Structures are given as C-alpha cells and as structure tokens.
C-alpha cells in the first residue's frame, strides 16, 4: 500500500508528564487506521507557525501493533527554535496536524544475543515502543535510564511496573551516573547496545564500545538534536536561479523550504542521508554524522550544516 506524503491527524489527548514533557495522542483525522510501524520509528510533525512552518522529528512511543493512534513525547527545549514551544503552547486537544508517515532509523536487531538500552532524559521515548516488542523476542534485555532528578524522570513508574529488575535508573541529583565502561565491559559476546539522549551520553557510550572492540554493527544510537545556530549567510540554488538569505537562527534546510525549494528529508538531524545535496561553490561547515570525509568538499547536509564562507551555491 502506498501512503500519502503527509497524513492528517487529530490531537486526541495531551498529558503533562513532567514540568518539561508532554505526551500527545494523535488519531486519524478522517477515521480509519494509521500506517503500521516498527519499534524505534519516528514521525515528522509539521507545525504551521505564524512566520514559518516548523518540522520536528519525534519518536513513536505507542505499541507498533496499535494502528488506532500514535503517541509522541515532546520535551520543551530551553533553546527551542520554535517547534517544541509550539507543541507545548499552541497545540490543543482537537487540533489538526500534518505528519509524515513513520520512518525507522533506530530499529531493533532481532538476531542479537542480548539487548542493552541506554536512555538519557527525553531519549527514553524510542525505547517505549521497544518495550512493547522486546519481551516477545525471547532474548535478555535491560534498560538503563538516566535523568536529572525524580521530577524529570518521564514514564519511570510506568516502565518500572513493566520491567521490574530489568530497569536500572540513575538520578543525577543524587550523583548517580551511567558508567559506560563498567556496563559494556561486562556483556557477553553478541550483545547489542542502543543509546538515545544528549550528545555527551551518546558519544561516551559509542566511543567506549569502540574502545572495547564492539563491532560497529552492534552499536546503535539516535539523536534528534535541534540544528545549532550560527552566522547568517546566503545560498544560491543553481538550477532554480534563486538566492536565499539564511538567518543565524534558522537551519539551511528550513530556509530552503521557506523559500519553496523542496529538499527530500527524513531525520533533520544529520544522520539519515536523505537531504544530501551537491555543493558547487563555497565552504561548508559540516555538522552531520553522515557524509564521509572524501565527500565533504562537494556535498552538504542542509538539515544541520551551515557555511563557513559568506555564500554557498547548491546543486538545486
């Protein structure tokens, strides 16, 4: 079955989970069922702001076999570019939103001998759908969940009721922290590790796993970080003969979309490769985790990367 490029959904419920996190339940706007998805999938939510449309990726938390609704958890970001604030302040029960169908860049490897899940803060959300599927795989798994304080431990009680001793929590306000080397060094061969959360946590886990000799195929991570701001610059689209100003607080991809230039994309976080674009002139400031070194003088990922020069010319 081919699904439309975007889907219309209705906000059926909004629940305040912590002072910074809300859970949104989305149902089909015209009834029926939503597309199925696999654990670890995300959707892109389109938010029609007054001056621009925000597009943020959010992990699906609901059960993959439940096509009656999707659930997402949205953390209000202190340095939001507008998307998380829009979700927290503008979106009300009964509103209609457009979303992209689910995509999965963080799928479970079903052939592993053991699964280690590591979450930091709002990075717990993709694992909520994992927990609906992992018990049926018949392999051991455990979840390590770090948060700044009990009041910010979204869904902790719900997870604890399901997992019992398989859940290990780390409360930073009590000086409790995940020790990646201690955790990963003690795992049997064939174990896979999955990490989602702040950049520092992801880097620590991934680097430690590599230092311990874990195969790259056993290391999985996902981060939906907002593109960082930078100096303003200009971008020219060679094929469309247009020149666009990119403000310091707007990503290159957002600026292109606001000007009506269509660029395929999926994660908007510099990891999936969907928005890879030819770079014809200018020097890019690469901020992605996708392009190999040998391609960085002729390609750019506009979802996160910017310009070191005053102007870029793209093959668009």
Description:
The protein has 316 residues and is an alpha/beta fold. The chain contains 6 helices and 19 strands. Strands 1, 2, 3, 4, 5, 6 and 7 form a 7-stranded antiparallel β-sheet that branches. Strands 10-9-8-11-12 form a 5-stranded parallel β-sheet, sandwiched between helices. A 5-stranded mixed β-sheet has the order 14-13-19-15-17, with helices on one face. A hairpin with a 4-residue loop joins strand 13 and strand 14. The model has no long low-confidence stretch (mean pLDDT 93).
Brief write-up:
It is built from six helices and 19 strands.
List the helices and strands and how they pair.
Layout: E1 7-16, E2 21-28, E3 41-48, E4 53-59, E5 70-75, H1 83-89, E6 96-99, E7 103-104, E8 114-120, H2 125-137, E9 141-147, H3 156-163, E10 167-171, H4 180-185, E11 191-196, H5 199-211, E12 219-222, E13 233-237, E14 242-246, H6 252-258, E15 277-281, E16 284-285, E17 299-300, E18 306-307, E19 311-314
Parallel strand pairs: 8-9, 8-11, 9-10, 11-12, 13-19
Antiparallel strand pairs: 1-2, 1-6, 2-5, 3-4, 3-6, 3-7, 13-14, 15-17, 15-19, 16-18
Largest sheet: 7 strands, antiparallel
Terminal-residue CA separation = 30 Å
- Beta-strand residue fraction: 25-35%
Mean pLDDT, all residues: 93
Global Rg = 20 Å
- Level of helix content? 10-25%
Low-confidence stretches: none
| Class of secondary structure makeup | alpha/beta
Outline:
globular
- Written as H for each helix and E for each strand, in order along the chain, the element string is EEEEEHEEEHEHEHEHEEEHEEEEE
């Amino acid at each position: 079955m081919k699904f439309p490029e975007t889907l219309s959904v209705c906000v059926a419920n909004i629940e305040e989970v912590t002072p910074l996190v809300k859970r949104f339940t989305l149902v089909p706007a015209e009834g029926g069922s939503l597309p199925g998805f696999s654990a670890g999938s995300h959707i892109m939510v389109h938010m029609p702001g007054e001056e621009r449309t925000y597009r943020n990726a959010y992990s699906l938390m609901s059960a993959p076999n439940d096509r009656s609704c999707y659930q997402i958890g949205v953390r209000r970001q202190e340095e939001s570019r507008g998307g998380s604030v829009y979700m927290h302040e503008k979106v009300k029960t009964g509103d209609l939103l457009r979303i992209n169908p689910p995509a999965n860049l963080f799928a479970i490897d079903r052939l592993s001998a053991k699964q280690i899940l590591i979450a930091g803060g709002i990075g717990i959300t993709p694992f909520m759908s994992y927990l609906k599927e992992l018990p049926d795989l018949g392999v051991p798994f455990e979840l390590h969940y770090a948060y700044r304080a009990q009041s910010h431990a979204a869904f902790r009680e719900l997870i604890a009721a399901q997992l019992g001793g398989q859940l290990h929590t780390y409360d930073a306000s009590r000086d409790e922290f995940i020790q990646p080397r201690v955790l990963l060094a003690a795992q049997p061969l064939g174990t896979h590790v999955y990490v989602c959360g702040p950049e520092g946590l992801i880097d620590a886990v991934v680097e430690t796993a590599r230092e311990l000799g874990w195969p790259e195929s056993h290391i999985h991570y996902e981060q939906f970080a907002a593109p960082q701001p930078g100096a303003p610059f200009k971008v020219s689209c060679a094929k469309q003969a247009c020149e666009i100003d990119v403000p310091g607080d707007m990503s290159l991809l957002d600026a292109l979309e606001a000007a009506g230039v269509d660029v395929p994309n999926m994660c908007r976080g510099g990891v999936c490769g969907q928005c890879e674009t030819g770079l014809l002139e200018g020097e890019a400031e690469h901020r992605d985790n996708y392009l190999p070194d040998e391609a960085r003088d002729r390609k750019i990922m506009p979802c996160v990367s910017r310009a070191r020069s005053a102007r870029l010319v793209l093959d668009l």
